Amino acid sequence: MNIGIVGFGGVGKAFLKLVYDKKNELENEGIYIQINYIIGRTGGVYNNHGIELQRFIDFLSNEKDITKYCDGGKAEDINFELMLNNKDIDIMVEMTPTNKETGEPGITHIRRCLENNINVVTSNKGPILIAYKKLYNLAKAHNVQLGIGCTTGGALPAINGGLMDLAGADITSIEGVLNGTTNFILKEMEDTGCDYADALKEAQRLGIAETNPSLDVEGFDTASKLLILTNVLMNTEKTMKDISIEGITNVTPDDIKRANSLNKKYKLIGKTEIVNNELEMTVKLQLLDPSNSLYGVEGKNKAVRYISDTLGELTIIGGASGVTPAAASILRDIININRGYKFVK
Amino acid sequence: MNIGIVGFGGVGKAFLKLVYDKKNELENEGIYIQINYIIGRTGGVYNNHGIELQRFIDFLSNEKDITKYCDGGKAEDINFELMLNNKDIDIMVEMTPTNKETGEPGITHIRRCLENNINVVTSNKGPILIAYKKLYNLAKAHNVQLGIGCTTGGALPAINGGLMDLAGADITSIEGVLNGTTNFILKEMEDTGCDYADALKEAQRLGIAETNPSLDVEGFDTASKLLILTNVLMNTEKTMKDISIEGITNVTPDDIKRANSLNKKYKLIGKTEIVNNELEMTVKLQLLDPSNSLYGVEGKNKAVRYISDTLGELTIIGGASGVTPAAASILRDIININRGYKFVK
């Protein structure tokens, strides 16, 4: 199984390390992974017998610029077009930065690989948010696979849960605690009694919240994950405009205190349900009691709850944060494709 | 995809109804299910063009004895041997009653089908408890699949979770609330303040506990599910003797009251973990606080929590009770096999 990596950052580096560390285990299962391409913004690395991972990982310990790595060819000549022309990969792993407005350059990378009968596994939310159905149909037409498990919660197997664990059942409701940053802020307010602004500062200090936290705290990250889950698992083509979105920026220490005194907790919940035969999609703060399976989802954890017709309720809690779990979720899709699973049916 | 059902009771009947109800949906995905055999204790029904489900389901509404159904052949001539000889099925669904001592007749049915290159999906715990590794290796040697999702929690995707959702990660700990009856009894004691004996009586009155409840309340059912999960997901060959098992029969209303006053709850937990480089397996009552993801698992619900090296923690809560969810978990394995997934690698 030959792989080309397009877009190379922290998760890519963790992915290489994982493939290296798990080599024996994977080979015991009959999975032989060879990384032929690592393509960054200004050039890449290529070896049609597989890049020597130990050597490349050692190189990365002192150097960020992959174009300085010498493996035969000139770094600046190694690009996406060359990879398509050479036709020597089975799977493209797309990890370029997410653009939620245009989906580019991810959409183009994914589209052109699928058109060239190359399987795709991606961590890139943008293309899946904007063009999932088109890309799915393209994959289907070319009889290749499209793995998107990393795009909604990373290690949290939200997509897997809906596709594989509820195979044969109709999902009638999706509900989730899908954003770690807002979870952290709410927990911080609960634990220390501080106000929203101070909890946000603490999250920023710890590197959990970004300098511009609006995507997280205003609910857009939750909404985008809910949108992907809904479109993938309920066979629809909703957009962000179809979601009523509220964030957590107005929550006060008094709200939290009152919830606590009732033995309840606030969580930012994304929810899709059927109301009067139509899908209704919301992101908003909700007060949960301890019997709710999402009540205990704390800190950086995430969770999703499905209700289905024949397999009942299914709650999945998990989704360790960080580059290794994200990389492991990419590897999970690759392994499941290797085990024959058809994400694209 | 032609199916032979061996062992026919409530789950079998629900399975037929499900295949009938989901026909269009399955066909949209390219899955054409035809039931060729339904084999009971004293005879069976056979149609090599597929038993007419609507007609057979109507027949069952007035009659339990399937040998009275007329579909050409003589019911008493239609048996397991005939099915093997005819070689006209792709999957055998084994649903004979569980025998946890011998595993029979399930083991023989499964073994002979695998030897004849027929895929197997089973709800029968006995064979998997006693002979999983042998049956797995047999399936591997004959390049066929063995689906066992129904054997540990029915609708709860415990096996799927470990195999598919944690693909590529090493599971280092398994912990679960795996028995609905003990869950119900503990909840009943908590809600009403009654003692163990009265809670058990109520469970029996509602048909949740059996007349002889010892398998459930003494922890053996939890232990047997833990054993299957451990052997399947941690690649070992433990037996029931390797598990330290305590049930819930000694719990008092005072214990429950004290737990409540601490805002905690008792659950019967089956757990496999690595202690001093060895697997340690226990079933015992444990006191959980609300931050534990198993805390909210109430009533007939079940749950399992895995800890893994690269994908972190994963908790799965669900597992609706009853014949339809159990049948749906059989159908889930059939669909995943149809989608190409290799449970046997």
Structural write-up:
Chain A is an alpha/beta fold and 345 residues long. Chain A folds into two domains: 2-155 and 323-338, NAD(P)-binding Rossmann-like Domain (Rossmann fold, 3-Layer(aba) Sandwich); 163-318, Dihydrodipicolinate Reductase, domain 2 (2-Layer Sandwich), CATH 3.30.360. The first copy, chain A, contains 13 helices and twelve strands. Chain A has helices spanning 10-21, 23-28, 53-60, 80-86, 106-115, 125-141, 158-165, 180-192, 196-205, 214-217, 220-233, 253-261, 323-338, and strands at 2-6, 34-39, 44-46, 91-94, 119-122, 146-147, 171-177, 243-245, 265-275, 278-288, 302-308, 313-318. In chain A, β11 (302-308) and β12 (313-318) form a beta hairpin. Chain A is globular and about 65 Å long. The model of chain A has no long low-confidence stretch (mean pLDDT 96). Chains A and B meet through α7, β12 and α13 of A and α7, β12 and α13 of B.
SSE diagram, text form:
The structure is a homodimer of 345-residue chains.
Chain A: E1 2-6, H1 10-21, H2 23-28, E2 34-39, E3 44-46, H3 53-60, H4 80-86, E4 91-94, H5 106-115, E5 119-122, H6 125-141, E6 146-147, H7 158-165, E7 171-177, H8 180-192, H9 196-205, H10 214-217, H11 220-233, E8 243-245, H12 253-261, E9 265-275, E10 278-288, E11 302-308, E12 313-318, H13 323-338
Parallel strand pairs in A: 1-2, 1-4, 4-5, 5-6, 8-10
Antiparallel strand pairs in A: 2-3, 7-9, 7-11, 9-10, 11-12
